[in-house]
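Translate structure to sequence.
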């Protein structure tokens, strides 16, 4: 269904979980457009088939031709995805309060890169400490929230 919608130009993907919090929360919606010729970059939010499910998560790393994605609000990275498994890239986030946050502007890319850096560090540290202490999750949520507040999103 997503591929069919994207063939027409764009797709409105409703946020149904807190996996992208604090930037995106249930009730918000990402506007996803076809990937085009530009490969996903660090910090982009992409729609992809990751393992058995479709996800709308942030690119936190590229390794050996695979893209590693992670939800800003998730402690661990997703299964690696190939470019052919990427359905599209989010160009905006429509908040439930009516605000529209463009993700393809300089400010949007800065927010994306900053959140990806925080998220990537969290995934690395969580991989070292198994299971990760609860304070890790709280610390990285607060760090992500501060990024959002500092950049007014």
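Result:
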């Amino acid at each position: 269904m997503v591929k069919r919608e994207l063939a027409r130009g764009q797709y409105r993907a409703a946020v149904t979980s807190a996996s992208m919090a604090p930037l995106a929360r249930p009730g918000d919606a990402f506007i996803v457009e076809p990937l085009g010729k530009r490969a996903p970059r660090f910090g982009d939010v992409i729609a992809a088939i990751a393992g058995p499910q479709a996800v709308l998560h942030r690119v936190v790393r590229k390794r050996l031709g695979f893209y590693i994605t992670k939800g800003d609000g998730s402690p661990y990275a997703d299964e690696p995805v190939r470019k052919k498994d990427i359905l599209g890239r989010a160009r905006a986030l429509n908040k439930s309060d009516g605000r529209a946050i463009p993700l393809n502007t300089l400010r949007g890319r800065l927010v994306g890169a900053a959140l990806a850096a925080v998220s990537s560090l969290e995934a690395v540290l969580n991989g070292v400490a198994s299971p990760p202490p609860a304070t890790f999750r709280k610390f990285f949520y607060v760090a992500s929230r501060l990024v959002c507040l500092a950049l007014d999103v």
